[in-house]
Fold this protein.
Amino acid sequence: MTEKNTNPLSVVILAAGQGTRMRSQLPKVLHEVAGKPLLAHVIGTATRLGAEAIHVVYGHGGAAVQTALAGLHVNWVEQSEQLGTGHAVAQAIPHIPGSHRVLILYGDVPLIGQETLERLVTSAGNSVVSLLTAEVDDPDGYGRILLNVDGNVSGIVEQKDASKQQLAIREINTGMLSAPAAKLDSWLKRLSNDNAQGEYYLTDVIAMAAAEGVAVHSVRADNEEEILGVNDRSQLAYLERCYQANVAHKLMSDGVTLRDPKRIDVRGDIQVGTDIVIDINVVFEGRVVLGSNVHIGANCVLRDVVVGEGTVILPNCVVENSEIGDDCQIGPFTRIRPDSILQAGVKLGNFVETKKTSIGRGSKINHLSYIGDATVGNGVNVGAGCITCNYDGANKYQTVIGDGAFIGSDCQLVAPVKIGERAYVGAGSTITKDAPPEQLSVSRSKQIVIKGWKPPKKAKN
Ligand code: UD1
Ligand code: CA
């Protein structure tokens, strides 16, 4: 978004607070919305703004935060004592060139939107201060925006320092602001902690800017939830619902039918075709791709999955890290474990589990089977209750089933083993040697009848 004639952007994210009200061992900013740490949401948004550098000011639980977010490209700045928001920003300033524009964000305000921030930063330009404010019914706890007689922002007064008259102001400070780095530096150096909380308030720079004749713009967020912070688990749950409501709305506008937009959770990225129908209580995690005309029944969990067009997933299935082709039918109650690759038209029924297995076109495994470390050809029929015995307690072995093979019910295929093309395996067989193509292989003891057998009788006492 960096526009011509604007200076590079440095983002500072404040994340040093303790988060006492979470009542948690976990640092507050590592609590999750949509399966992702609060701080990671903010870093992601800052990254999409095209910031040249992102500085995260950490304090409490700093090591844990850095470990959890090790993959993200940020500069960690320690604030060893939490002496106030102004002090926190001052820790990052030495890392920021004076020519940059600075944007201040908060690690516990996860839903701040890219568009809102673009407006904020654009409004600040290279030489002006821009403040994200909101008009609220209940301003309790927030800093209040003070205006001069011309209606321009002249300062911010914190709740604890405010007069009765000031407390009635309903335009509040969200805390997020953008300012030129060199000026911000000079103002921060002049902060004092002579106030009700004995803190160095970032908010005091606003009055300094106004006194120097630097214009202070106020900008409003696009949505109410963008400015909300997380202090306790109720607020965390509220923002989770806001996030999920937005995702549900987006899916519906992309042409997906949701039986109940309140009962779907997306914890990651989802890519969709059209005319998809999703029943209630479905959870998507990681990267999920759904082709057009996919139907997903109630209570399914899909993590890192690609689902081909026209495939139907019936209720209560769990699918992980796998690929399902077009026009498959899965479930109900199927568990597809990682590295399962299903070609078009495959049917997996109830209580079937697959793992590290590829299954060819049109093959069916309809009931109560475990197929792992296997290659199953096209048009194979696996009867009820079949098991690939892939593990000897130390190592895992492959089972290969050729095209058109028919495995009767209740067979154990003891790997490594091959079933030839169009081979039949008789029900109840334990197959330990390769079964040749187009032949019937059977391994079961002969049935006998015990003549004169009498059923047992209850003992008398
Ligand atoms: C701050 C603003 C207030 C605004 C409100 C919005 C100041 C002085 N006041 O008040 O005008 O309405 O946010 O929520 O800025 N932090 C640090 N280091 C510190 C202190 C705070 O990293 O030394 C971080 C905290 O982790 C938190 C954020 O800064 O995420 C806000 O700090 P907090 O003390 O909660 O400020 P508020 O009193 O809410
Ligand atoms: Ca706060």
